[in-house]
Write a structure and sequence with these properties.
Structural class of chain B: alpha/beta
Oligomer: heterodimer
Pfam families (chain B): Pyr_redox_3
Protein name (chain A): Ferritin-like domain-containing protein
InterPro entries (chain B): FAD-bind_Monooxygenase_sf, FAD/NAD-bd_sf
Shape of chain B: globular
CATH architecture of the largest domain in chain B: 3-Layer(bba) Sandwich
Largest sheet of chain B: 8 strands, mixed
Distance between the termini of chain A: 43 Å
Order of helices and strands of chain A: HHHHHHHHHHH
InterPro entries (chain A): Ferritin-like_SF
Shape of chain A: globular
CATH topology of the largest domain in chain B: FAD/NAD(P)-binding domain
Organism (chain A): Rhodococcus sovatensis
CATH superfamily of the largest domain in chain B: FAD/NAD(P)-binding domain
Chain lengths: 306, 497
């Protein structure tokens, strides 16, 4: 049966929740022991920033959506990713991880991606963003969020991530449907668009920022004590779900991302020498070369009401 | 039994007043204006929000047959426009024609008596040989369909029903809507409120609006030599006509209009993300152009925030947006425009053989030259279907409609006849009109109040104002069927004048 985007939009509107729906002062924060607390802080910070980056990706996708309904869906997803980031920040606040009004700073790899998104995402095609964003979402949903749900007993955290998971399931449903939709295009159009996209240096720059982001994420996850196999299982899912239909396979970008995820999960692949080197290089990236943090990345708040 | 009215005018705004003036000038005396409000003025009586003003130059936003040399600025505020309306009412002796507090509940063609019977809420019905439907497209306010709208416990104000008793000083204000009225209200509210959050769904193309004060010497010249005022009006008219090339049709000049809009935005907004949020993603002209030089600076004031997150619902204390935050507010201002009917009719109208106009228009309103509908004899619409201007003054269009309907009514009354537009001519006109609309910016892909949900454009005229005026220059009676007026003497209804 054909996917009904209108029905999905109605469902998205029906399922809205707000930070004010959650009792942030409810008991349970004491369940985070000192050891977990220390590891959790950078992890939550990364997670929050990746949600924020995803939000910006959806904002760019909304501009390219082929229909008004999909445009509105992406506009909602943009806001929902921001909501997830806000909720994660509110959890950090609940757990006493924020110093006053402090908003944790993104790591350099996230900063590089923010910088790229700010400069290039609006000019990047739906085919590119529409395959990369689901990959990040699959990784987030399947590994990071799952890890938190499994490892943290705080009932407020459980409630928050239950809601986030519910939103993400709709995001993924739409993401994969759009990949399939893109795969229906004429092959000539797909090839022209793909060649055109790769002729643009911005995509190469973006790829060089995306590669260390993934490996850095992996390192952070491992440092947290998460079994990296979890991340790999999630990334395998991207290929598996996408290939349920024949159409995504017609997209070179989908094939590239699938291939890339396969390489990422193969620790023996020589790719990692390159990717890990990029992680080391980017760690030394001169901050003065980064443009000022865009205002869209400063809209995060842990306050349920304003 | 009293005689029916010669003409019943429904609505006492600009169009109704203009029609009454012209009918009186043609020595048609037995006329009445039925107005549901307590004052004349229509849209301009209702829209008195802070900053309310016309975005068409006053010289053009006034009747050529009622010149006003005293406009204080290039663009007038609502109070000054209302004064102009009041002055017309007094100068042309229209006040006795007004029947205030008359809310029309139905208009029915009585075939036996060859007259229209007009019913009211709480008043006896009247009969009239001709009817001018001057109820206007911007008469009924529109609240957005947002979940929880009724649960809000703070103060709610619609821009067209302003609450002048409410003191905004030091209040947390939410403004929903960034259309023509929103961009005028926000700069005024940021001057007094503690905070203003502006909720935008779709950004519009905004062009700079430079509002110069008119020098006394200029006013004196206009008064002493009315031809100079007429010249100024013509200059504005043709200036706006040239804008049509970029605004009405999707043409290279549309890019020029967009470039002016982008330059205006770039000059006034430095932050790239805010600029992106304020950049439209549709062709200029597709939705109504905004004329403002104050909106962007107001948005960047310390006490003002632009919110572009979709609204999830309205809660008792404020507005919850999809990024999960409840934005609490003491008052919500709805600058959400009007319920512009593109498929129905302002009041129930039944014509010949019991036909119901609302049924005929259920898939989109259609009329002959926007002014007459076959099967509804001696009835004329001002601002009927497809008479909306995208680039010029509504008053220019209205004046042409009034002159046309006054000619047609004079003709019918003088010859004791009933004019009914031919169905085939009406159909041909609309086929051609819709074909022409396909090439316009309004039909270029955005959704707007110009279009029905199915994308049918029952609102705008696809051409220059001069073309619209030209088609209404004279009544071609070949386009009408004519029958004889035979009053039925047994009907007992009282005409209230």
């Amino acid at each position: 049966m054909a996917f009904d985007f209108d029905e999905m939009l109605v469902k998205i509107k029906d399922k809205q929740w707000a930070l004010a729906d959650i009792d942030w002062d409810a008991p349970g924060s004491e369940t985070i022991g000192p050891e977990l607390w220390t590891k959790l802080k950078p992890f939550m910070s990364d997670l929050m920033w990746i949600e924020n980056v995803g939000a910006r990706g959806f904002a760019a996708m909304a501009q390219k959506a082929p229909t008004d309904t999909l445009k509105e869906i992406y506009t909602y997803f943009h806001a929902e990713e921001q909501k997830h980031a806000n909720a994660e920040l509110a959890l950090m606040r609940r757990w006493g991880m924020l110093d006053g009004d402090e908003i944790p700073q993104p790591n350099v790899n996230v900063k590089l991606v923010i910088d790229w998104l700010d400069k290039y995402s609006d000019q990047t095609s739906l085919a590119v963003l529409g395959t990369v964003i689901p990959m990040l979402e699959v990784a987030l949903d399947g590994a990071l969020v799952k890890f938190i749900v499994d490892e943290i007993d705080d009932p407020v955290c459980q409630e928050v991530f239950k809601r986030i998971n519910s939103d993400e399931s709709r995001h993924l449903a739409v993401d994969f449907q759009v990949i399939e939709l893109l795969g229906h295009a004429k092959m000539r159009k797909i090839i022209v668009e793909t060649v055109g996209a790769w002729m643009n240096p911005s995509l190469i720059i973006g790829t060089l920022r995306y590669i260390p982001l993934l490996n850095k994420m992996r390192d952070n996850i491992v440092a947290m004590g998460v079994d990296e196999e979890r991340l790999y299982t999630a990334m395998r899912r991207f290929k598996k779900v996408g290939e349920r239909s024949e159409y995504p396979k017609r997209l070179p970008m989908f094939r590239f991302i699938s291939w890339h995820s396969g390489v990422v999960i193969n620790r023996a692949h020589p790719y990692h020498k390159f990717a890990d080197a990029l992680v080391r290089v980017t760690a030394r990236y001169p901050k003065r070369l980064l443009r000022p943090q865009p205002t869209w990345s400063k809209e995060l708040t842990y306050e349920p009401v304003a | 039994m009293s005689e029916p009215l010669s003409v019943a005018i429904i609505g006492g705004g600009f169009a109704g007043i203009g029609a009454a003036i012209r009918l009186k000038q043609k020595r048609i005396d037995c006329i009445a204006i039925f107005e549901r409000g307590r004052e004349p003025g229509g849209t301009w009586r209702d829209n008195t929000y802070p900053g309310a003003a016309c975005d068409i130059p006053s010289r053009l936003y006034s009747y050529s047959f009622a010149p006003n040399p005293d406009w204080s600025h290039t663009y007038s505020g609502s109070a000054e426009i209302l004064q102009y309306i009041e002055r017309m009412v007094d100068d042309f002796g229209l006040r006795p024609l007004f029947n205030f507090g008359h809310n029309v509940s139905g208009v029915r063609w009585d075939e036996n008596a060859s007259v229209w019977e007009i019913s009211f809420d709480g008043h006896p019905p009247v009969r009239a040989r001709a009817v001018v439907m001057a109820s206007g497209p911007l008469a009924n306010v529109s609240f957005p369909s947002i979940r929880g709208l009724d649960t809000y416990e703070g103060h709610k104000i619609h821009s067209a029903r302003w609450d002048h008793d409410y003191d905004f000083t030091d209040k947390k204000v939410a403004v929903v809507g960034t259309g023509a009225s929103g961009v005028q209200i926000v700069p005024e509210l940021v001057k007094v409120a503690r905070s203003v959050k502006v909720y935008q769904r779709t950004p519009g193309w905004a062009l700079p609006r430079t509002n110069f004060a008119t020098r006394q010497a200029t006013k004196d010249v206009y008064r002493r030599f009315p031809a100079t005022q007429s010249l100024a009006r013509n200059a504005w008219f043709w200036g706006h006509e040239s804008v049509a090339l970029g605004v009405v049709w999707n043409s290279p000049l549309t890019r020029v209009v967009e470039a002016v809009g982008k330059l205006h935005l770039r000059r006034q907004v430095k932050d790239p993300w805010l600029r992106r949020q304020l950049t439209p993603d549709f062709r200029a002209g597709c939705k109504r152009l905004l004329m403002t030089s104050d909106f962007y600076p107001a948005l960047q004031k310390d006490n003002c925030t632009l919110v572009t997150w979709p609204i999830a619902r309205i809660s008792p204390k404020g507005i919850r947006t999809v990024e999960g935050i409840e934005h609490q507010a003491d008052v919500i201002v709805f600058a959400t425009g009007f319920d512009v009917s593109k498929t129905g009719t302002p009041v129930p109208i039944s014509g010949r053989d019991g036909r119901i106009l609302a049924d005929e228009w259920s898939t989109g309103a259609r009329a002959y030259k926007s002014i007459a509908v076959s099967g509804y004899p001696n009835m004329y619409f001002t601002f009927g279907p497809n008479s909306g201007p995208g680039h010029s003054s509504a008053l220019v269009y209205m004046e042409a409609q009034i002159d046309y309907l006054v000619d047609a009514i004079s003709y019918a009354l003088a010859r004791n006849s009933i004019l009914d537009v031919r169905e085939d001519r009406q159909r041909e006109y609309n086929v051609d009109l819709q074909r022409r609309l396909q090439k316009t910016t309004w039909n270029s892909g955005c959704s707007s109040w110009y279009l029905t949900e199915d994308g049918f454009n029952a609102t705008m005229f696809p051409g220059f104002a001069s073309q619209y005026v030209g088609q209404l220059k004279s009544v071609d009676y070949d386009d009408y069927t004519t029958s004889e007026y035979r009053p039925a003497e047994q009907i007992e209804l009282t005409a209230t004048v």
